[in-house]
Here is the input.
Amino acid sequence: MIITVASFKGGVGKTTTAIHLAAFLQGQAETLLIDADPNRSALGWASRGELPFQVMDEWSEAIPDGNVVIDTQARPTPEDLSALAETCDLLVLPTTPDVLALDALVLTVEHLKAISTQHYRILITAIPPRPSKAGQEVKELLEEAKLPVFNQGIRRFAAFQKAALKGLPVYAIKDSRAEAGWQDYENVGNEILDIMEARALTIKAQEVPEIRDFF
Ligand SMILES: Nc1ncnc2c1ncn2[C@@H]1O[C@H](COP(=O)(O)OP(=O)(O)OP(=O)(O)O)[C@@H](O)[C@H]1O
Ligand SMILES: [Mg+2]
Here is the structure.
């Protein structure tokens, strides 16, 4: 499967998300992360330490049958976004629970509506700890607006910054919240697998109309 991570605003956790979804998917099948951001943040991450999957800066012959995760640059043009959405199985749109990020997200979704794709999910990232209710409030807001949002959000933990610095996935970091951070991404990864499974079943049902008609 091909997962693309994109956003209209910078610094919302795209690279962190791409790295950890690739780490999760690598546990299922051979996975490749393509760093399509000219800043090469994912390649930088990989070069500082060790990741359990390959990171490349472009498509190559070596693309596995398994999974591809694409990390992109912030602020794609609407045309870029349409192309991204149409060439992947799922577009993941991280957003932080703050007003500026949400404004940028609304803009993104307007463009997605224009190309009428339902192949995307919003991921709320860097959720501040209690007593802040920002994460829950933003989730409810998005759900009320009937936008597809991952049930699991990603909490704000310093362990993610340490992971980027050390060039490792968060689970390999010595930090009391490292495990909790990894669990958040594991849950999102499992939601993605469920989405794909549900979609495969729908497609199968559409492929056999004669059987459906029979019953
Ligand atoms: N869940 C989190 N908890 C704490 N810090 C986080 C979390 N996710 C990301 N960060 C930090 O926020 C900053 C931005 O994250 P990241 O680089 O993943 O965002 P980005 O959307 O890829 O940014 P850019 O638009 O510059 O490519 C980094 O310092 C990163 O370590
Ligand atoms: Mg990035």
Q: What stands out?
A: The chain is about 45% helix and 15% strand. The longest helix spans residues 178-207.
